[in-house]
Design a protein that fits this description.
- With about 150 residues, the protein is α+β, with helices and mostly antiparallel strands.
- It contains 3 helices and 7 strands.
- The chain is globular, with a radius of gyration of 19 Å.
- The N and C termini lie far apart (about 40 Å).
């Protein structure tokens, strides 16, 4: 009996080593450097991202991000903005940087009302945005809330 239990445990350990855990996307986003440069259209300086190669490898691939829900667009329930930090500390309201927020464009509206600062998990296709200053730098397309 002990031999069977040991064999089962050893097998599970080996299998767990073969399954790679999902990457920590916040850690990946934090490796992005931002350079201030003039936007001629707006006549102002903005921070533009310089994405590391390690992060660029995820561009166009399905990724999962867990974070604090930040309600920004009340009229469009198919938009989910996540922050690495609670609203009081987020990029828009606190002192965090642009690497701490991601927007998910959802395939379907959430099945329930999501509360501010509720931790949710969103999976979608990562799009890295280097140029459009009217959009966030980290975008999840065809996104789904997976911890609803």
């Amino acid at each position: 009996m002990k031999k069977k239990v040991f064999t089962l445990i050893a097998g599970l350990i080996l299998l767990s080593g073969m399954v790679s855990p999902e990457p920590d996307m916040w850690a990946m986003f934090s490796k992005t450097k931002f350079v201030e440069k003039l936007n001629k259209e707006w006549g102002m300086n903005f921070l533009y991202p310089k994405f590391p190669e390690e992060l660029k490898a995820f561009d166009g691939k399905k990724v999962t991000v867990s974070g604090f829900y930040i309600p920004l667009d009340i009229n469009n329930s198919k938009v989910a903005v996540l922050s690495k930090f609670p609203m009081a500390e987020c990029f828009f309201c606190g002192g965090s940087g642009p690497e701490s927020v991601v927007v998910g464009y959802l395939k379907n509206a959430p099945k329930r009302k999501i509360k501010t600062d509720e931790i949710i998990k969103v999976r979608g296709i990562l799009k890295l945005n280097e140029e459009d200053i009217e959009e966030l730098n980290f975008i999840l397309l065809e996104a789904e809330i997976i911890s609803d």
